Amino acid sequence: MAKSKVHNVGNLLSQSLGQEIEVLSEDTRVLTAPGEHYGSVMLALNVKIKRKDSGKEQNLQLVAKLIPANEMLRIAFDVPVTFKKEVFAYKETIPALVALQKEFGVPEERLQDKLFPKCYGARLSVDENKNIVDEDAVLIFENLKVQGFITEDRLKGFDLSAARIILKDLAQFHAVPIALKLLKPEIFQKKLVPALVHNKGLEQLPPEVGLAFHNSIMDGARDVLELKPYLKAIQKIVDYGAATPWVNRTAPNEPWATMCHADFWVSNTMVQKNENDTTVRNKIVDLQLMRYWSCCCDLVFFLFTSVINSVLDVHYEDLIRLYHQSLIDTLETFHVDLSPFSWDNFLKELDEVAPTELYHVLVMLKPICTERGKVQHTSEEFQDSDWSRKDLLGPHHRKKLRDTVLAIHKRGWLQA
Residues of 106-124 as b/e, b for ≥16 C-beta within 10 angstroms? Predict the structure, then answer.
């Protein structure tokens, strides 16, 4: 069963609150729903603490992120590598980026740590001398849901107001690491690269699971009449993805290489809306799959997996211009040479990188579009059939696949 308690909460919280605290009470409940989240176990963690110096009591509403309880999921997400990457990101990488921003006088509200939920503590093990992920590995965050943040419906996607807010944040997410790379390469190597190392993935699972993801693309495309003219081109995308895993790809083009999220879709960013249902704030979550890659990979993946297709069809040009201008505005803060990052150079990079990201987009439509209620097992009871069964996909997948392929074709990225 999934763990329902976090050991030594006080020691974790002392990382951000100071040493002089006492935990008076704590309670947890599992947040992970069947079919919605696999890479970790998420617990709502409510803690009552007392500050020893003042005697002041405080209630903290938090979220604890633990490693998956199921061994197959630990393998699929390469937990010994990915959890270590995320812990490093919060403890070392983000503070290094904030330090650079403070050096250049960036206002408090624009600091890099504001892009993410506040991290109250993180560890690989209760044994501080160990450098390996064990059963007590955990990250503790503020609970964004009690602040009004939501995870958007994966079967719907983001509207224009959300896409604009998120793309501005994504541009900052990419630009500050680029500035650190250009200005302080030794710090970049020490503080960022360990959070960007490559990790293994689905190729470690039983062959039928990998094939289910791989085959979902062509099986779905053959069921959609409008995609018949593009079947050969889609097959080329599928063949490229199968033959060219991440670890075998050439190094990214400079200067566009940066800290990429590598899994930036609907469920990995949370939004806050106002009374008019307009998105006003965003928080980026789940940093365990980050890698050193072209910023355009994250951009393409987000737009074509997570923005409502009708919105993307009308506003694509505006959205990529918004992203690029936000990237430039952030870089300008650090007085770096902006000429390599021109609009023309950006479009060239986008058109070169996008075709290499299409397999990632299309294969990800399988988990995004899995029909609700089809997966009954909790994450600790996970079975490979929860990913490989053909009945998991239905009308949502076929429509999203159709709209996405047609959008890709419109951009000129679908090669016959």
Answer: beeeebbeebbbebbbbbb
